[in-house]
Amino acid sequence: MRRVVAALGRTFITAGILILLFVGYQLWGTGIYTSREQDQLARDFETTLSRDGVPAPVTTTTTVGLPGETTETIEPALDAPTIPAEGDPVARIKIPKIGVDKIVVNGVSRDDLRKGPGLYPETALPGQAGNAAIAGHRTTYGAPFGDLDQLVIGDLIQVQTLYGVFRFRVTEQLIVAPSDIGVIDPKPVDSNAPSKGLVPQITLTTCNPKYSAAQRLIVKADLAPDQVALPAPTSRGNPQISEEGLSGESGSTSPAALAGLIAALIGLAWWLLFHRHPSWTTWLVGAVPFAVALFFFYSFLERVLPANY
In angstroms, rounded to a whole number, what is the distance separating the alpha carbons of residues 282 and 275? Predict the structure, then answer.
C-alpha cells in the first residue's frame, strides 16, 4: 500500500510540474517567437515604406487630448490602398496608455496571430471609411492586447499605415459572446446621421476574461474628426465574417495526443534508464530527447486553444 501511495504521489508531482512547464511555455515561451516575428515584420514594414516612397512618420510634441500624448504630422494619401497579402504587415498600432507598439498583419488565422495582432481580411484597412477590425492575443504570444480592458472613452489609438498616420479615439468598450460577430461589422453607419455614410473606425478584439476564451472584449474607436478617411473598400464584395480561426484548431487534437504519447514513452524510457544507471550522464542523455518531445507536444497542444487566448 505504501508503494502505491508513493507512486501516486510521484505521478501527481510529475503531472503538476509538466502543467507548470506548459503554463510557462504559454505565457513566456510563446512570446519569444512573437518577438522575433515582430522584429522581422517591423523591418519589412519600414522597407515597404521606403520602397514606395512613403516617408516615415515624424513624432511631434503636439499634445492631443490628454497630457503626454503626441501625434504624427503625416497626412494620409487619398487613393484607395492596396490590400497586402495574408500574413504581411498592414500597419503599426500604438496605444500609449497601455504601452502597445506592434505591427499588425493581414489575417486572423492561428499563424497570423502568432506573429502579432491581425486584421480581419473582410474588414476595412485602418483609416478607410468603414470598420477596421483587429484581433490580438490577451495572455500568450506577447499578449499585445493584454491590458485592453484598461482603455476608456477618449483614449488615443494611433495607427501608422503605408498611406499615412491615423488617430482614433476610444468610444466604447463592451463584452460579448464569441458568436457575436456583429461587433466587427465592416460597414458601420452612424444611426444618428446615416446620410454621412460609413463611419471610419477601428475595433480591437481579444479574449475575456484573462486566461479564458469564454467571451470577447471589444474596444471601439472612431477616427479623429480633424482627419480625412481613405475611400471605403470596393473590391471585397459582401464579407462573410466568422469566428473560424479564433476558437482553436480541432484538427490539432490528434497530433497533440500523438506527440503527448511519444513524450510519455520517452519520459518512461528515461526514468527506467536512470533507475538502472543512476548518474548525471544518464540524466542528461535522457533529458535532451524528452525536452524536445515535450516542446513539440506543447506546440501542438497550444494550437487546440483559441487563437487569441
Answer: 9
Q: Which residue is associated with the grid cell 512613403?
A: 54
20 CB-contact burial (10 Å; exposed 0-12 / middle 13-18 / buried 19+): exposed
Q: pLDDT tens digit string along 104-158?
A: 999 998 889 999 999 998 888 999 888 999 999 998 899 999 999 999 999 999 9
Query: CA–CA distance from 250 to each of 210, 257, 284 (Å)?
Result: 22, 12, 35
Residues in contact with 72: Cβ distance below 8 Å, sequence separation at least 6, in sequence order: 57, 58, 59, 60, 158, 160, 165, 167
DSSP structural state of residue 237 = -
d(CA 117, CA 133): 10
| Rounded Cα distance, 236 and 234, in Å | 6
pTM of the model: 0.77
Cβ atoms of residues 221 and 157 within 8 Å: yes
